[in-house]
Design brief:
With 206 residues, this protein is an alpha/beta fold. It has nine helices and five strands. It binds one DNA strand of 23 nucleotides through strand 1, helix 1, helix 4 and helix 5.
DNA sequence: TGCCAGGCCCTCTTTAGGGCCTT
């Protein structure tokens, strides 16, 4: 598959529309079945980190105050990601913050997000939960560090993506799993998924 | 004062409601 960028945000809350801001971003590049590069940074958006969020993420107000400005970090991570297609776990969340933080520096997203959670719901329906941590345990993914820190979660999402790609190759007898195919599968109906993927591939098998 | 998201997905649905998932 072409190189993809798996990203993860830590934030002050759930909605940029309500004033929540990013406190940390990580992006890892996945190429030829492995992580080949990493970017990680705390960022200072001048916002208050609540005790709940500090307890959840381990990111304190002092850590954010010492971090580089959010605009500087977003410029750097946007350059790092470049034009690679994007992946995130529950991508609707990260996509909202990605777009909102980019808009603040007058930049725009150029590629679509694929969502490892939506893919897991279709391809790993027997998992007891589709939370990132639960899927890591279910699929026996390698440990990557403290849950709810950006780099650890981005790397874990990358390992989950590689696991999902292996499931797709095995189940649908596909040699190369493109980002475009991931986007098609995540939008396909759960029932009739096999028929849908076969139609996408024109019925050709490797 | 109290409350505040948003998209997906399933079902006891479709003129709706509630759980899941992200921080």
């Amino acid at each position: 598959m072409e190189t993809v960028a798996v990203i993860d945000f830590e934030t002050t809350g759930l909605s940029p529309a309500l004033g929540d801001r990013a406190t940390e971003i990580a992006a890892v590049l996945v190429q030829d079945g492995q992580i080949v590069d990493r970017y990680e940074s705390l960022m200072n958006a001048g916002v208050y980190v609540s005790p709940f969020i500090e307890s959840l993420t381990g990111i304190s107000n002092a850590m954010v105050r010492r971090a580089p400005p959010a605009a500087q970090v977003m410029e750097a991570v946007a350059d790092f990601v470049g034009d690679h297609p994007l992946v995130a776990h529950n991508a609707s969340f990260d996509c909202r913050f990605w777009d909102a933080e980019l808009q603040r520096i007058d930049r725009r997203r150029s590629r679509a997000f694929a969502c490892s959670m939506r893919l897991a719901r279709r391809l790993l329906p027997r998992a007891p939960s589709h939370k990132l941590g639960a899927l890591a345990e279910y699929a026996d993914l390698p440990a990557t560090g403290r849950h709810h820190r950006a780099l650890a979660d981005a790397e874990l999402s990358a390992h989950l993506l590689l696991h999902i790609e292996a499931v797709i190759r095995r189940r649908f007898r596909i040699r190369e799993v493109s980002h475009a195919l991931l986007c098609e599968i995540q939008c396909a109906p759960q029932r009739g998924l096999d028929r849908c993927v076969k139609n996408l591939r024109g019925g050709a098998e490797t």
